[in-house]
Amino acid sequence: MRRLLAPLANAVFLRLWAAYLTATLGGMMQAVAAAWLMMEMTGSPAMVAFVQSCITLPLVAFSLIAGVLADVYDRRRIMLAAQGVMGLVSAVLAGLAFADALTPGRVLLFTFLIGCGGAVHIPAWHASVRDIVGRRELAQAVALNSMGFNVMRSVGPAVGGALLAATGAAAVFAANALTYLAPVAALLAWRPGPRAGPPPAGPLHRALTDGLRQAAGTPALLRIMLRGAVFCASGVAVLALLPVVAARLLAGDAALFGTLLASFGAGAVLGAILNPPLRARMSNEAIVRLAFAAMAAACLLLVSGAAWAAFAGALLAGTCWVTANALFNVTIQLMAPEAIVGRALSVHYTGIFGGMALGAWAWGLVAEAQGTATALVAAAVLMCAGAALGLRLPLPDPASEPS
Question: Is pLDDT of 234 > 80?
Fold first, then answer.
């Protein structure tokens, strides 16, 4: 545990990490309020689902260009601009809600704009972590980031739902706007040192193509990205179908769904705690194969029909989700040259977010046509195939990585 928390001794990382957790909590609250407001305005499940799509689509569409920006321009200024825009958009959304001037189209538009800010921010933040904490504590810092996000994924909807019931959607949107003040203040207080190397010269499109060419010409990076996309496309079945598991397989209510989400969040914390000792004792490929296999087991636990097994499955799924994704992120950062680390991460994010978006849609179709249990069993089979893929495409262990 002490090793996991070591990056928090770095004052800059601690301030930024805590600030981003605050903003992430606000973002999760905003997503709940937007989805509920859309349901009230339209009564259409498709429109409600489209709210989530408007959050995810920018991450798929703009991650590549955001990676170029992170490699070419000052990352602190990029993050300041992104957080400022998200805060401003959220404030306007809150104002329109208080004025009772929102329409379904406006809710989708403002949700999409907030998603665009997140898409620009993510590569710059993750590329900055190595500069802030150094290579020795990079794995722990990435694990803390992943753990924090997944805990907020569990806590945020519950807090947002409670605030929504007590005060209404407009107040939730306003609270979200205020949370962006935390990262803006932390970024204004941060004075980063010079980068290790000069930024790429030439126009942005050349920087993009050069970065893609270097990433494509590095087989080790391609293997990491492919395995990450497969893991997320199959593992997202758990997150996508968890509400259906609670309502149909367990005949539960919103409280049971919240408990399952809390179990997933607890698993995320456990995954972050286990990450350093696992990396010290096992190869990257062994850890990833274990995560694939354990996620398959989690899918099977969720279809058992027993509440205790479903809680165990959600806990195991959260553990695997953080363990695997933190490992993919760290390995890319350690293997990619400093000059293209932002672009390498952005290609990875495009793959995993695209895999999650397509996977969630596909598993939803399978569940609707063949049943939730069939969809989760199929996801478990795909997870086993992802583990076997390591026989042909094993994950590398960076030789220069500190122990």
Answer: yes
Domain ranges of the chain: 1-190, 204-395
Task: Report which of 322, 333, 334, 236 is spatially closest to residue 287, judged by C-alpha positions.
Answer: 322
d(Cα 122, Cα 79) in Å, to the nearest integer? Answer: 8
What is the full DSSP assignment across 224-291? HHHHHHHHHHHHHHHHHHHHHIIIIIS---HHHHHHHHHHHHHHHHHHHHHHHHHHHHS-HHHHHHHH
Residues in contact with 176: Cβ distance below 8 Å, sequence separation at least 6, in sequence order: 26, 27, 29, 30, 33, 90, 94
Q: With bands split at pLDDT 50, 70 and 90, how would you rate the model's confidence at 204?
A: low
Alpha-carbon distance of 350 to 336, in angstroms, equals 16
Q: Which of 223, 393, 379 is nearest to 293 (CA)?
A: 379
The SS3 call for residue 43 is: coil
* Average pLDDT value for the chain: 87
Residues 384-401 have a mean pLDDT of 85
pLDDT at residue 403 greater than cutoff 50: no
Report CA torsion sign: 159, 161, 167, 168.
positive
CB atoms near residue 190 (< 10 Å) = 17
Structure tokens at 198: 């000069």
The answer to whether 1-190 and 204-395 have equal CATH topology is yes
Question: Does position 390 have pLDDT exceeding 70, yes or no?
Answer: yes
DSSP one-letter code for 390 = G
Burial 117-140 (b: 16+ CB within 10 A, else e): bbbbbbbbbbbbbbbbbeeebbbb
Task: Count the neighbouring beta carbons within 10 Å of the beta carbon of residue 371.
Answer: 15
What's the whole-model pTM score? 0.78
Quote the CA–CA distance of 155 and 177 in Å, as a whole number.
18
204-395 belongs to which homologous superfamily?
Answer: MFS general substrate transporter like domains (1.20.1250.20)
3-state helix, strand, coil in the chain (%, to 5): 85, 0, 15
Distances (CA, A) of 339 to 87, 105, 204, 213: 30, 40, 14, 13
The DSSP secondary structure of 328-369, one letter per residue, reads HHHHHHHHS-GGGHHHHHHHHHHHHHHHHHHHHHHHHHHHHH
- Residues 47 and 295: their CA atoms lie apart, in Å, by 30
1-190 adopts what CATH topology? Growth Hormone; Chain: A; (1.20.1250)
